[in-house]
């Protein structure tokens, strides 16, 4: 199914949106830096601050972009806004409940992939957009647009632990699939990384759950 708008209308919305909220894009990079700092500072307070920072970015994108800007050309945009605000609420909830979600930078493939996703979202994504001819201020920008923010969120979740990681990953993964359709139909090459990291996140969580299940069954089998 084709989207109910053209690529020209899509980019026009971003150009108007970016101009209207400037210089909040700089603030968004600051909040992203706060979130990344939590990976290098094993403190509960810093983790709480990181989760709240991410929640602010998600809520702003949901309301500012989806509801107040994108809805002008896409009737489903209010649903997307609700999903991003819900994700923000989930992060705030985890910030208020110790142990629900912990951020940890490890020396493993999972953490390396997470860091790569974060680097892509904040630095490489806009460069690909410029290469594709969208320009810096006429396309999705980090922290205030859904797709680069989703890539960043998935990168953070790849380095998260706790009982809520799976539930926190549902909306970002679903959006990564929606973004794939838009990337193909509208020709947004910078979004093609999003489904890739989304699948890596799901595969990582699935493997982790399988190993935990096996470790629980192992001792039980030994006592049979």
Question: Key features?
Answer:
224 residues; mainly alpha; two-stranded antiparallel ribbon; globular
Characterise the protein shown here:
With about 220 residues, the protein is mainly alpha-helical. It has helices at about 5-20, 25-40, 45-65, 75-95, 110-130, 145-155, 165-185, 195-220; strands at about 100-105, 160. It is built from eight helices and two strands; from the N terminus they run H-H-H-H-E-H-H-E-H-H. The radius of gyration is 18 Å and the shape is globular.
The stretches of 5 or more residues where confidence is low (pLDDT under 50) are none
- Summed up, the helix count is 8
Mean pLDDT: 90
| Biggest sheet, spatial arrangement of strands | 1-2
Helix-strand topology string:
HHHHEHHEHH
> Radius of gyration, rounded?
18 Å
Shape: globular
Task: State the share of residues found in helices, binned by percent.
Answer: over 70%
Strand content: under 5%
Category by helix and strand content? mainly alpha
Biggest sheet statistics: 2 strands, antiparallel
Our measurement of the CA-to-CA distance between the termini, rounded to an integer number of angstroms, reads: 54 Å
Number of strands: 2
Could you give a quick summary of the protein structure above?
The protein is mostly helical. The chain is 73% helix and 2% strand. A two-stranded antiparallel sheet has the order 1-2.
């Amino acid at each position: 199914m084709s989207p109910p708008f053209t690529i020209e209308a899509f980019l026009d919305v971003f150009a108007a949106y970016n101009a209207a909220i400037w210089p909040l894009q700089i603030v968004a990079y600051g909040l992203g830096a706060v979130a990344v700092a939590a990976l290098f500072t094993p403190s509960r307070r810093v983790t709480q601050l990181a989760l709240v920072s991410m929640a602010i970015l998600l809520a702003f994108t949901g309301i500012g972009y989806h509801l107040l800007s994108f809805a002008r050309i896409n009737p489903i945009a209010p649903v997307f806004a609700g999903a991003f605000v819900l994700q923000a609420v989930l992060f705030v909830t985890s910030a208020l409940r110790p142990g629900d979600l912990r951020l940890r930078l490890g020396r493993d493939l999972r953490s390396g992939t997470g860091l790569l996703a974060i680097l892509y979202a904040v630095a490489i994504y806009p460069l690909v957009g410029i290469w594709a001819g969208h320009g810096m201020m006429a396309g999705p920008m980090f922290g205030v647009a859904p797709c680069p923010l989703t890539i960043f969120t998935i990168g953070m979740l790849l380095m998260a632990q706790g009982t809520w990681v799976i539930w926190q990953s549902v909306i970002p993964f679903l959006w990564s699939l929606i973004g794939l359709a838009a990337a193909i139909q509208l020709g947004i090459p910078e979004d093609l990384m999003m489904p890739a990291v989304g699948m890596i996140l799901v595969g990582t969580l699935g493997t982790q759950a399988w190993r935990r299940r096996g470790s629980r069954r192992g001792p039980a089998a030994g006592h049979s």
